[in-house]
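User: Can you recover a sequence for this backbone? Please restate the input before giving your answer.

Assistant: Of course. Working from this structure:
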C-alpha cells in the first residue's frame, strides 16, 4: 500500500476529530461567545449539512483541476478555517468557519476517494478505502477524547489549534506524494460535461450501493449519537460513558481493518452477509442496553459491523462509479454517507423524544439496517459490477 494512502488517513483523522469533538466543547463555546447551548448546537448541525452539500458542489468545481492541486487546496482551506475559528470572538464568524471547514472536508474526501483507483490500482481500492476511513475511526478512539481533554485543560480554542496543526503538518507530504503517485497533470479520464456523470447515481450497482450506504450510515449514527446517554441511565454507569464511546471506536477500527483485508476479493459477500448480521448486532445491542456489560460488549461488536460494512460500501460506490463517472465517484460516496449521518440522528431524535427512552435509538438502527438488507438483497446481482459490466449498463 503506498505511503500516501496512510498520509491521507492522517488528514482524515484531523477532519474526523474536528467534526465530532465540537459536541464535547459546546458548553464551553456557548459560554465564551455568549450564545445559548441550543444555538451553539448549530456548529454541529451545519457542519453535517455542509458535508452533504459540499461533496457534490466541490467535486463540480474542482473536477477539472489536477488532483494534486484540488486536494492540497481543500486541506489548506480546512486548516485556515480552524485557525480563524480558534481566534474568533463572535459566534457568527465561528459558525462560518465551521461551514467552510465542512465544505472543504467534503471536497477533500470526494477527490481523495475518486483518486484511489489511480493511486493504488483497481484491485486494491477496497483496502485503500479502509485505510482512509480508518482515520475517522481513530478520531473516535483518540482524537475526540483528546480534543475534549484539551478543551477542558486549555480551553476550546486549543482543540481548534491542534486540528489546524495536524492539518498543516500533513499538507506538504500530501502535496509531494500526490505529485508522485498521480501525475500533477493527471485529471479524471472523462470527457463531456461533468453534470452528465451524475446520471450514474441512478444506474444499477451504483444506485444499490448508494441507497444501502445511506441506510447503513443512518443506522450507525442513529445509535452512536445516543450511545453515550445509555450508560448514564444504568446505576453506576455514568463514569463509564467515555469507555463505552471508546470501545465503539475500537470496534469500528477493527471492523474497517478486517474488512479492508478481504474487501477487494469478497466485497459482495461482506456487504450481503454483513448487513444481515448487522441487524442482529443492533437488535442485541438494544436488548442488552439495560446492563453495563451488555452495552460495553455490543458497542464494540456493533461498531465493528457498522464501519466494516460501511467501508465496503464506500469502496463499492467508488469502484462502480469510477469507469463512467471518475470525477464525481468520490462525491457520490461522501454524499451518501453524510446524508445517512444527517437522517439517522434526526430520525432517532424524533423517536427518542416520542418514547422518552434513549434505547429506542438503537431500535432505529435495527430498522434502518433491516431496510438496507432488503435493498442489498434486491440488487445483489448488480451490487458489484466490474468496469466492463458498468460500461455496458451505461451504454444501454
Amino acid at each position: 500500500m503506498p505511503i500516501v494512502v496512510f498520509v491521507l488517513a492522517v488528514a482524515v483523522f484531523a477532519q474526523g476529530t474536528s467534526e465530532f469533538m465540537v459536541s464535547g466543547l459546546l458548553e464551553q463555546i456557548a459560554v465564551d461567545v455568549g450564545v445559548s447551548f441550543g444555538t451553539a448546537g448549530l456548529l454541529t448541525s451545519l457542519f453535517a449539512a455542509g458535508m452533504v452539500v459540499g461533496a457534490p458542489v466541490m467535486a463540480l468545481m474542482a473536477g477539472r483541476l489536477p488532483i494534486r492541486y484540488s486536494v492540497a487546496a481543500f486541506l489548506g482551506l480546512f486548516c485556515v478555517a480552524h485557525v480563524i475559528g480558534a481566534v474568533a470572538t463572535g459566534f457568527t464568524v465561528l459558525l462560518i468557519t465551521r461551514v467552510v471547514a465542512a465544505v472543504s472536508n467534503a471536497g477533500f474526501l470526494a477527490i481523495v476517494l475518486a483518486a484511489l483507483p489511480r493511486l493504488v490500482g483497481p484491485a486494491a481500492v477496497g483496502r485503500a478505502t479502509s485505510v482512509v476511513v480508518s482515520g475517522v475511526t481513530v478520531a473516535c478512539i483518540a482524537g475526540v477524547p483528546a480534543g475534549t481533554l484539551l478543551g477542558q485543560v486549555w480551553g476550546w480554542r486549543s482543540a481548534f489549534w491542534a486540528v489546524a496543526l495536524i492539518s498543516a503538518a500533513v499538507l506538504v507530504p500530501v502535496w509531494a506524494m500526490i505529485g508522485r503517485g498521480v501525475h500533477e497533470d493527471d485529471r479524471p479520464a472523462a470527457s463531456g460535461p461533468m453534470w452528465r456523470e451524475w446520471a450514474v447515481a441512478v444506474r444499477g450497482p451504483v444506485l444499490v450501493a448508494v441507497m444501502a450506504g445511506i441506510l447503513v450510515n443512518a443506522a450507525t449514527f442513529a445509535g452512536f449519537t445516543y450511545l453515550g446517554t445509555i450508560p448514564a441511565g444504568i446505576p453506576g454507569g455514568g463514569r463509564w460513558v467515555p469507555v463505552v464511546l471508546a470501545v465503539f471506536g475500537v470496534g469500528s477500527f477493527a471492523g474497517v481493518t478486517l474488512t479492508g483485508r478481504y474487501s477487494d476479493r469478497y466485497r459482495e459477500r461482506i456487504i450481503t452477509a454483513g448487513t444481515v448480521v448487522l441487524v442482529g448486532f443492533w437488535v442485541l445491542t438494544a436488548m442488552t442496553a439495560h446492563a453495563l456489560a451488555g452495552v460495553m460488549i455490543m458497542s464494540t461488536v456493533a461498531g465493528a459491523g457498522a464501519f466494516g460494512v460501511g467501508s465496503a460500501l464506500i469502496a463499492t460506490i467508488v469502484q462502480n462509479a469510477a469507469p463512467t463517472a471518475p470525477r464525481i465517484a468520490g462525491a457520490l460516496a461522501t454524499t451518501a454517507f453524510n446524508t445517512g449521518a444527517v437522517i439517522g440522528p434526526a430520525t432517532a431524535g424524533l423517536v427518542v423524544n416520542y418514547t422518552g427512552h434513549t434505547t429506542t435509538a438503537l431500535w432505529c438502527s435495527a430498522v434502518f439496517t433491516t431496510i438496507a438488507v432488503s435493498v442489498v438483497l434486491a440488487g445483489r446481482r448488480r451490487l458489484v459490477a466490474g468496469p466492463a459490466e458498468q460500461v455496458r449498463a451505461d451504454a444501454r
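That completes the design. Confidence is low (pLDDT under 50) at residues 386-396.
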